[in-house]
Amino acid sequence: MANYQNLLVAIDPNQDDQPALRRAVYLVQRNGGRIKAFLPIYDLSYDMTTLLSPEERDAMRKGVVNQRAAWVKQQAHYYLEAGIDIEIKVIWHNKPLEAIIQEVINGKHDLLLKMAHQYDKFESLIFTPLDWNLLRKCPCPVWMVKDNIWPDHGSIAVAVNLSNEESYHDELNIKLVEKTQDLAKRIIKDPTIHLVSSYPVAPLNIAIELPDYDPSLYNNALRGQHLIAMKELRQKFSIDEKYTHVQEGLPEKIIPEMCEELNAGVVVLGIVGRTGLSAAFLGNTAEHVVDKLKCDLLAIKPDGFVCPITSDDE
């Protein structure tokens, strides 16, 4: 069971407020552990300095790195003065995704926190944003932080997939609930955990092609299957029925609505890490959900996930 004692915070270089660092401090104050504030930087003007000597180029890199390290330290100075254990690390790297994941691997970090950014949907289909790539490829859980204060008496929502389409869903659901219960006990007094799931509506094209087809029978049967699966899951963890919710609709609509209704501080969601063409055409539920959430998102991979980016020890 991950205790989230070794946190990596991806610092946003474009703003002076760092919600991800603030959330990491919140977790450490309640759960213990240490924080590394990490920032990979690269100055495009460096590519235009080929006429300079190697020593001059090296001095330029070091100057930029030291300047940004001082800036990160300024961002964290209130926490440092309060005695929070924060290591500041700034490196020269022109690929933020690789730099962050390699730092996760090399530093054996068990949780990555990053501020969530919203992107234009059309642009995202062409240029995969850093947030999306981290959700897909990071080997440890990823906590995407919205710029919100944790709500008073806030709950934790766990989005579970109760369909029988893939065998790994049952194992992943169990993993999500186990990790959520463990985390909730550590950071929240008298935590309330809600299990949330959705099921699709009856396809209208079938109703048109088959006159005798009754969509209501299909919906009732599908809802019944999900309710039975939810009962089995909640009983495994001794969760009261009033804390379980099965709604009709798409997860990217139902999950944000339920989180707002439940006053959730964070929703825990499993992500398979689909890449390539399947990701472009099918997408990942977490990615569709994150832009519509008003609370944080904690994305967890299934057991056996293989990170496509390897460690770089140089």
From TrEMBL:
<dbReference type="GO" id="GO:0005737">
    <property type="term" value="C:cytoplasm"/>
</dbReference>
<comment type="similarity">
    <text>Belongs to the universal stress protein A family.</text>
</comment>
<keyword id="KW-0963">Cytoplasm</keyword>
<comment type="function">
    <text>Required for resistance to DNA-damaging agents.</text>
</comment>
<dbReference type="Pfam" id="PF00582">
    <property type="entry name" value="Usp"/>
</dbReference>
<protein>
    <recommendedName>
        <fullName>Universal stress protein E</fullName>
    </recommendedName>
</protein>
<dbReference type="InterPro" id="IPR006016">
    <property type="entry name" value="UspA"/>
</dbReference>
